């Protein structure tokens, strides 16, 4: 395949992968050069540099595939869409609207996220829709909502970090996940103020001035210990707490019992280091607390993030110019993906689906009665787990997600998918999930289509079409419109042009927390830096939030009283180690894209398990051996990497690999009670020599 130029001039666009959305330029021949943009300042990581390979990949699907006699075989678009619509109608007639479900992704553009949510609620009439962002930053979103009344990953421009004296990064490894981000840490680093909290000595931790290595699942306790030190050492920002917050006393009643020496016994982090972080943050003129997946992907993810927000509030950081709390969103449109209605409990504009006024507003934009809109559905893992079970969905449409690799307890998820009467995927290539489907629809990607993304700062970007797609593929918007029409919807209700969809999204978001109504493609084409909310076309956007007031009705931020409870699955004699999962520089999410890029995949072609040399030796293993890592749910085979800086009680596996190499064969689907985030970051395992190795 060759990517066909759509213009004769280079197109300024953005990277297809992570939430940094680095600026790049694509030539008519689809060659990439970095572009000055505030998040990357002219830098790109290996993933960005090699991204044009995705446009030329021989693995691209270019015709619909329909399973016939057990095999996926080429079919025409009409035949594939007719088949899907007929089966959906049969299932709905026989089992009700909630027998069909949709699953989206945090990499989909705002327009796709919006239209998918509308398609599910209006064309399918189902409540059963959620997306893979539930596995990503939902705990920080819920904690941010509780604390501030509104959640925007970073409520300030990333470039503000340059003037920080101290930054505490909790469970974030941007040196691998988004390398150009690291330049924004240099100011704090130069002043000796960069602290990284991570059980592993990651490449980011290597650069830190202080690395705290708590046992997995204990970072909530660590935050309480540091907060205790803040108060005990007289570092509390008393006037900020009194003027801008509520609920501190209830938090202190808990935190008073978490003195640093006790927290040291729970976390393994020295009491002196806890006090050092408290002093570093309190004495800094400008300071930030930033969390990411390491804090969030727990069955106590919301409480864990709340504990770090409590610390930031006690120090008076949020809503203070040059300081703050923020969450580093991971997926390319992780922020926008959670704002436009593909989440089980939300409508566009980041509105609650249970709010009568929100339902009235969105229904009026959609031209349907508010009472016809379904209520909230199951969260991502609960939806996947219910597939094919009594009362659960019998058909699933998947857009922009590869759940067979990325969902927890992935053997169970694959088994549930196999029970379905109909599994449909819209995909670029035959991912592991598409390989199980009954119908696979080949769709456009990234530089082959227009669309907007909302980066980790809440800044809306126009990602412009630069090349023509291969013949035979269609956009996700075309797919949704084609299905909606076959399901009896008027054509004008499901437009296929991205700008037209965005215009409708603006109207649907108007007046909501994430208000896009003042953003137009024209303003984005003109290069305006627009951070939501943007409530009208003359509004300059909101780069910094909460400077005057938080979004709760009383304008105050709220402390959230939280206790340390530990991992859902502590180690025992049968499973004596803790496994944690994460990412590597060369791969993105499930690896469906990056495993196709030779320069990336040749460097890290298979799963591995990082383990302390003494732990390996006790299991009879040496560096380079094949190990069997087994949890209560299953096992995976991984090459041993002995790493002297690892904690002896912890092993680490990247989760980007398919088949028997899936780290998510191990992970625990215990869910956070609020965010419904699974516990990806810690489960009990044992390590043995692989039979025959
Ligand atoms: Fe930038 Fe992320 Fe793309 Fe790397 S993957 S070039 S950090 S947007």
From TrEMBL:
Keywords: 4Fe-4S, Iron, Iron-sulfur, Metal-binding
SUPFAM superfamilies (alphabetical): ADC-like (SSF50692), Formate dehydrogenase/DMSO reductase, domains 1-3 (SSF53706)
A Pfam match: Molybdopterin
The 4Fe-4S Mo/W bis-MGD-type domain, residue ranges: 8-57
Family annotation (InterPro entries): Asp_de-COase-like_dom_sf, MoPterin_dinucl-bd_dom, Mopterin_OxRdtase, Mopterin_OxRdtase_4Fe-4S_dom, Prok_molybdopt-oxidoreductase
SMART domains: Molybdop_Fe4S4
The name this protein goes by in its record: Nitrite reductase
Species this protein is from: Prauserella endophytica
């Amino acid at each position: 395949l060759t990517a066909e130029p759509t213009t004769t001039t280079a197109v300024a666009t953005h990277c297809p992968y992570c939430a940094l959305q680095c600026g790049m330029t694509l030539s008519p021949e689809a060659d990439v050069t970095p572009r000055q943009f505030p998040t990357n300042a002219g830098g790109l990581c290996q993933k960005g540099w090699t991204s044009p390979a995705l446009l030329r990949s021989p693995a691209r699907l270019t015709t619909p595939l329909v399973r016939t006699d057990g095999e996926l075989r080429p079919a025409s678009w009409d035949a594939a869409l007719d088949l899907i619509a007929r089966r959906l109608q049969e299932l709905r007639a026989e089992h009700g609207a909630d027998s069909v479900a949709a699953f989206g992704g945090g990499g989909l553009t705002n327009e796709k996220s919006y239209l998918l949510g509308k398609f599910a609620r209006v064309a399918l009439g189902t409540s059963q829709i959620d997306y893979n962002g539930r596995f990503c930053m939902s705990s920080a979103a819920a904690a941010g909502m509780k604390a501030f009344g509104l959640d925007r990953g970073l409520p300030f421009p990333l470039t503000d970090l340059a003037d920080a004296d101290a930054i505490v990064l909790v469970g974030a490894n941007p040196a691998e996940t988004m390398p150009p981000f690291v330049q924004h840490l240099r100011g704090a680093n130069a002043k000796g103020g960069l602290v990284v909290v991570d059980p592993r000595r990651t490449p980011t931790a290597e650069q830190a001035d202080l690395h705290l290595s708590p046992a997995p699942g204990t970072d909530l306790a660590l935050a309480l210990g540091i907060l205790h030190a803040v108060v005990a050492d007289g570092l509390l920002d008393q006037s900020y707490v009194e003027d801008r917050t509520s609920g501190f006393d209830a938090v202190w009643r808990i935190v008073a019992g978490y003195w640093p020496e006790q927290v040291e016994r729970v976390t393994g982090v020295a009491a002196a280091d806890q006090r050092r972080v408290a002093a570093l943050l309190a004495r800094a003129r400008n300071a930030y607390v930033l969390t990411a997946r390491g804090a969030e992907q727990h069955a106590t993810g919301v409480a864990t993030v709340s504990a770090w927000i409590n610390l930031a509030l006690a120090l008076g950081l949020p809503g203070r110019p040059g300081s703050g709390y923020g969450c580093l969103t991971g997926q390319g449109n992780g922020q926008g993906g959670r704002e436009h209605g593909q989440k089980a409990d939300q409508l566009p504009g980041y509105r609650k689906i249970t709010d009568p006024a929100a339902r009235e507003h969105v229904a009026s934009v959609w031209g349907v009665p508010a009472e016809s809109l379904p209520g909230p559905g199951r969260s991502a893992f609960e939806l996947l787990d219910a597939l094919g079970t009594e009362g659960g969905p019998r058909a699933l449409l998947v857009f922009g997600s590869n759940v067979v690799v990325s969902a927890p307890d992935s053997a169970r998820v694959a088994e549930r998918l196999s029970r379905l009467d109909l599994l449909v995927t819209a995909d670029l290539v035959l991912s592991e999930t598409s390989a199980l489907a009954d119908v696979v629809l080949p769709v456009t990607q990234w530089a082959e289509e227009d669309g907007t993304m909302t980066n980790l700062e809440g800044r809306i970007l126009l990602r412009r079409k630069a090349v023509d797609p291969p013949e035979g593929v269609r956009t996700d918007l075309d797919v949704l419109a084609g299905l909606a029409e076959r399901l009896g919807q008027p054509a004008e209700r499901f437009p296929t042009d991205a700008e037209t969809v965005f215009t409708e999204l603006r109207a649907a978001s108007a007046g909501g927390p994430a208000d896009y109504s003042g953003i137009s493609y024209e303003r984005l084409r003109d290069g305006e830096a627009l951070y939501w909310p943007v409530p009208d076309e003359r509004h300059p956007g909101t780069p910094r939030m909460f400077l005057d007031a938080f979004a709760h009705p009383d304008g105050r931020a709220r402390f959230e009283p939280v206790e340390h409870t530990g991992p859902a699955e502590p180690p025992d004699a049968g499973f004596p180690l803790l496994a944690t999962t994460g990412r590597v520089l060369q791969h993105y999410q499930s690896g469906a894209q990056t495993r196709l890029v030779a320069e990336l995949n040749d460097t890290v072609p298979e799963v591995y398990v990082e383990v302390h040399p003494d732990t390996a030796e006790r299991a009879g293993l040496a560096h380079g051996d094949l190990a069997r890592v087994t949890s209560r749910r299953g096992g995976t085979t991984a090459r041993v990497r002995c790493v002297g800086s690892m904690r002896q009680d912890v092993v680490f596996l990247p989760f980007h690999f398919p088949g028997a190499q899936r780290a998510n064969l191990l992970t625990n689907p215990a869910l956070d009670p609020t965010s419904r985030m699974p516990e990806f970051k810690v489960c009990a395992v044992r390590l043995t020599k692989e039979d025959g190795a």
